[in-house]
Amino acid sequence: MKLFEEGIILSKELSQKLETIKFKVEELKKKGSELLTEPFDTELAENEDGE
């Protein structure tokens, strides 16, 4: 039971961290011979998945 409770706590902590990081992800795009970074469009990614 103790391990289950620890797992629930870890799950909540990691979910919060993922939400925070979600908005920091950048997408690499190649333009000519250089790589550029742009903010990742989460709405577009969700639409491509059908959600």
Walk me through this protein's architecture.
With 51 residues, this protein is of the alpha+beta class. It has one domain (2-48). The protein has two helices and two strands; from the N terminus they run αββα. The chain is rod-shaped.
SSE topology:
Layout: H1 2-22, E1 26-31, E2 34-39, H2 42-48
Antiparallel strand pairs: 1-2
Keywords:
51 residues; two-stranded antiparallel ribbon; 2 helices; 2 strands; 55% helix; 24% strand
In short:
By secondary structure, the chain is an alpha+beta fold. It contains two helices and two strands.
Total number of strands: 2
Average per-residue pLDDT, rounded, comes to 76
Work out the helicity level.
40-55%
Structural shape: rod-shaped
Low-confidence stretches: none
| SSE sequence, one letter per element | HEEH
Question: How would you sum up the major sheet?
Answer: 2 strands, antiparallel
Q: Structural class of the secondary elements?
A: alpha+beta
